[in-house]
Amino acid sequence: MSKRATTIFCRHCGAQGAHKHGKDARRRMRYKCMHCSKTFTRRTNTIRSGSHLTDTQWDQAARKFCKRAGESAEDMAREMRMNRKTAQKLNRTFRALVKELEPETLPGNSEWDEAKMSKQWILGGVSRELKQCLLKAIPNRREESIIPWLYDKSDPNGTVFTD
After folding, report:
1. pLDDT at residue number 103
2. What is the tens place of the pLDDT at every residue in 36-54?
3. In what order do the strands lie in the sheet with 120-127?
């Protein structure tokens, strides 16, 4: 079985044909672009760029975030044996990535309900067709707190189901 050559693209200019250029201080493979002459690693221009954490630690933290929708920084720091502020930064990074996935409105027919969790009211909606969802912390469950946001985030051509 022959090994297939991998084309490496520059993280700075996007040109193809970068070649290996030694290793960085953390012994990660470094590459040099033939076009712009800049050096880079696999982490350059990614969320892992400049981080002292290993790839394994990043993967562990991502799994923890996905499992519980953001494990507390205290718990993450204790379980992964890292500084609490590092765990806080990881949580902020993951939340920012997830925020970009949030839809502007729920398409089609949507179901809405409110619930109280740890003294905080939460309004949630889900699209019946695409299964997308939205959550929002609300001050109380009065009509004037819920209705404006609900109609702003629902599809005007869809039906809203709520209690």
Report:
1. 85
2. 999 999 889 888 888 889 8
3. 133-138, 120-127, 110-117, 160-162
Tell how strand 120-127 and strand 39-40 pair up. Answer: unpaired
Q: Which residues of 75-106 are buried (b: 16+ CB within 10 A; e: fewer)?
A: ebbeebebeeebbeebbebbeeeeeeeeeebb
The Cα 133–Cα 70 span in angstroms is 17
> Alpha-carbon distance 116 to 137, whole Å?
10
Q: For the whole model, what pTM was predicted?
A: 0.60
Predicted local distance difference test score (pLDDT) of residue 69: 62
CB of 135 within 8 A of CB of 123?
Answer: yes
Residues linked to residue 78 through DSSP beta bridges, in sequence order: none
The confidence band for 63, taking pLDDT boundaries of 50, 70 and 90, is confident
Structure token pair of residue 66: 């996905």
Looking at residue 2, what is its pLDDT?
59
Q: What are the Cα distances from residue 54, in Å, to 22, 62, 74? A: 19, 12, 19
Structural tokens at position 50: 């400049």
CA distance 23 to 20: 9
